[in-house]
Amino acid sequence: MNVHELPMIAFTILAQMSVGAFVVLGIVQIVASRRFGAQAIDKVTDPALYAIGPVMVLGLVASTFHMNDPMNTLNVLRHFDSSWLTREIIFGAAFAGLGFVFAAMQWKKWGTIRQRQAMALLTAVVGLALVTSMSMIYYSLVTVPAWNTIATPAQFFTTTFLLGALAVGAALMGAVMWRIRIASRGDVPADVEHDVVDPDSRKLLTSTLKGIGIAAVVLLGVEFLIVTLHLSDLAGGGAEAGQSAAVFSGAWFVARLVLVFLGAGLLSVFVFRYASSKAAARPLAILATSAFALVLVGEVIGRSQFYDSMFRIGM
Amino acid sequence: MTTNLGFQFDQTLCTGCKACSVACKDKHDLPVGVSWRRVAEYTGGTWQQDGDTFVPNVFSYFTSISCNHCEDPICVKVCPTTAMHVGEDGIVSIDDDKCVGCRYCEWACPYSAPQFDPSSGHMTKCDMCADYRAEGEDPACVAACPSRALGWGPIDELRAEHGSLAGVEPLPDPALTRPRLVIVPHRDAQPTGHGTGAIVNPEEL
Amino acid sequence: MANNDLAPTDQAGVSRRSVLKWSAAVGGGAALVGTGAYFGVLPGVGAENAVALTPSGDDKIVWSSCNVNCGSRCPLRMVVKDGQITRVLPDDTGDDSLGTQQIRACVRGRSIRHRIYNPDRLKTPMRRRPGTKRGAGQWDEITWEEAFDEIATTMTRLIAEHGNESIYLNYGTGTLGGTITRSWPPIDTPVARLMNCVGGYLNHYGDYSSAQIAGAAAYHYGGWIGSNSFDDVKNSQLQVMFGNNPLETRMSGGGETFVTQQAKKLHGVRTIVIDPRYSETAGGIGDQWVAPRPGTDAALVAGLAHVMISENLHDQEFLDTYCLGFDEDHMPEGIPAGNSYRSYIMGLGPDGIEKTPEWAAKVTGVPARTLIQLGREIGQARPVHITQGWGPQRHANGENQARAIFTLAAMTGSVGLPGGGTGEREGKFGLSMANPFRSKNPVKTSISVFSWTDAIERGEQMTALRDGVRGKDKLDTNIKMVWQYAGNALTNQHGDINRTVALLEDDSLCEMIVVIDNQMTVSARYADILLPDVSNAEQLDVIQQGSAGNMGYAIVADQVIEPLYNCKTIYEMMTEIARRLGVESEFTEGKTQEDWVRQVVEESREANPELPAFDDLREMGVWKIEGPSYIGLADFRADPVANPLATESGKIEIFSKPLWEMAQTWELPEGDRITALPEHLSTWEGAEEARTNAKFPLQVIGHHFKQRTHSTYGNVDWMKEAHPQVVWINPIDAEARGVANDDLVEVFNDRGRVQIPARVTTRIAPGVLSIPQGAWFTPDAKGTDTGGSVNTLTSWHPSPITKGNAQHTTLAQLRKA
To answer: What is the domain range of residue B41?
Structure first.
């Protein structure tokens, strides 16, 4: 495991998860709006939305540990026309800022629905620009063969949507369990679940989870394809590429693949099959949370190995 | 019109002694772990056994590198703060007041020219001894070389005198950053991308 | 040796102008910030003082030098600010031409600031805490007076009880080149001058560098001659270097690195390097590399001789005229037939073995076809410049190895001619400096440089015929006191460190060890009394030149800074002890150190009239003169009758009658042999034994390393970073042991164990390890040396003739740690 780059591992994973979750929530909104009312949707998705802010902030805080002289941090904004790192920081801050504004609008119901949707769209676009800049930081290093490949942006976006989707699933179920716990405090009614979650929400929830399950399985396939293509690409490269390829082997590499496979593959299939309006909340919550946790650990290992694979050409 | 400066390095004379590197450290008071000039040993070849005897087919040579003050400096391009900048005479240097110590330039430079100094939290690097040059003196490394393997001057003049070779293993493809560097190759020098040896002292770089 | 007809080199504009210029230059540099971490170790020299220089009158540049035993010697210009050296600059006089070159210091000299201000500096006199073992590291700080009193008292008692021969000056070359401050040769040291005022001390002959070859030259040439200087290869058709590696062992940019590189560049002479290592010299100026197993050079020469004799490529006329013992027609009286070199080679000698290239291939590991090509090439080139370094002779058969290479030079007929050579190490043009400070030792007894441990253990049993005691048939006393001034042979540079440490731990044997040094060296750990010496930057001396082809020079190294801590100069220390012994006026002759230095320069001007007067030299720092190339034995070659050698026959003695007689009379350990001819000897732990020794199958040599001059500079952080200690191993041997480059490995034999990283490299012959010599012995709790001193593995077993150190004759095994 790469401890040296821990701040960057934390920042990139958390920021990508945040962007992914935001976009997934947006998709849920759009898809669900055809069948459910805005109020029902907001009721289900808002808790997840509010969770994104702190996660993103955590990521940004982690990123500052990468600066060895924080006193000069503001200087990183100077080179927008050339440096992807500057762009990343600007888009990162913008995403966090817009996200907060949007969350506040949702909370206080400021503005019209249209205005809020426009804000959400803008935030999502900035978020995607953030992930793009983030990947370009590495992709643009022509001196690092393991990074200077389409696999870098592909992997970053896959991580974004995979973690984002599973995080949303876990957050939605987490919110349900939270409400059940609040509602059941004091007495022990027989059917708290039905009181807490109305049928519409339940339907929305289960179909969202089904969607997330499908997405996870598809993204899992994409991720495995990227890994395979990246490795075969490195195998055909020079000495530095060979050194990088050697990183993607051994116990950690296998552990990453197994964890992502278990989380995004196996458990997501269970989620997909189990998610019906008659399903009990608790097992569904456990499934969704476990899937998210496994994939998160797998992606952290993957990102750590991504930094480990930094072998620069030259001397 | 400005004169862009560069280094010239004669691989046939370099003994890998690192007087250049240590003279630089002495001049700039660099701590262990920060070396503005580094020397790579590139070695390869084979031995064939024939009964009780062995036949060597061995090559080895050294390459002393500091900053090449590239025409297309990737460090300047990636730096988020503009601390890394191209100055007078094409010299790439660091504005200490701006550097945030993110070490992105360190990732990018294929010559390891930007070196991180943990005590300041900033990147540091060769400025070709701007103070010495201002006094008409040679940079410390050039004046130090016991073998007279190092030179410096306007890159056009160096190229006119010594040719324009810079693509020698273990150096990167010069197309990447267009270094202002001229190498007089060792007899066993291998072109970049066609090396059969390896850097055997990576921990010293 | 200075030639009066030669004009001194241009010294224009050295001092005043450049001082001003540099003051301004350094003033512009803001880079001096950040020294705090390093200099923080010094009292009153913290980060607050390490600020950027400002152009002020306080800044000055003072000439100094690097005075270590590397064979070169470099002036240094030290920038001083507020009494502290802030930067070290190279020589800026002269040019890039042979004979007038700038003497650019090597990497070590450039790091000298971190040696002067090293955390290991000794700061005040110390005494081993009573009741603790030597080497336990328990010290009590004492005053200088206590130290001087104790030494004087003990000396007086030991001289009374055991005589002056019980006091020994151990070999040490930590400060070399100076005239008043030098630590070698022992007779030139201030310690010897003190001892000689009170009756003298036990001498030693030979040195750890060249014991065997120097002894061999005495039998072969009647004394040390020196091969032709390296600049003279301009007259050669071929250059052959046996274990000679100027690019690593003579690293100065004014010395032989510069000379050999320039000669190659200018004249392109074809160069063959014969060395088990693909040295920097092989890679830098060699056109061909031949890699024999260590200790087989005499066999290799025999194979070449076979080719040359068979194909009639040797210079018979030269051999007939100038040499004794090459063939049966030119033998000394009374020697039975079959004992000439030719008979040995052609299988007509007592062993009946013809030394064919195939025979030599089996011994050396060099293919017969290579030997045939080499024999033909050497045989056909005229003249051939043959030299050898100190590596071939630092073996159990070292005397024969050295003499075999001399013999090859004779067979080419190139001895005494421009472009030729004697087969010894290269000679040089040099100034001969007066030494009025040198004293005379009333004691004539001497032992070999390598046998002092024996003399501590069993001195009274040591004899002339068994142990090479000279000046007496046997020693009358064991060594009871050792002076170690600026040297590390007390442990680190001697054979078998673990055995040496065990010997020193028994303080009933040697009763007093006084170590004078400025660093806490490995040897200093084993002192009873530690006297903190100043560095050469803290005192004035006139410095003699190093080997620099055809350039002569002298340096006045001025006092740059005040003595650090509570350190004193060696001159002051010895004066104080002399006072306590009642011989102060004999010791000082009423002169200060500066008086002596002035006297050296003034008296040297008698032999070298162009040499500037002291005050001028002091301002110039370094003065150079271009001389002629050195041609070894030119006069003998021109007229062998008028200019006979100092051998018995007056000729080059390929067959040595004195050795023939020694072979009959000397008592040698089982297996050791002395031969009158330079035969290949298969020895203990030699190349042949390596192939049958299942336990320890790898030969271990210890090449000279860029990080250090022997052990000097071995504690400088910049040097350890630039050139970390590693053991070299061939990929074939590494693979067989599952070892990859940079893996931590253990090298061990019955004498000890070292643990350092492996450098897996094609640059060393299969079956051979090289652990660069001089690393500081650093035993861990289990006794494993994590510093990687090769002498943790070497032995006390001396070579047969000169009783010299055979430290490249060592077998060991290696495994992954």
So the answer is: 5-69+128-204
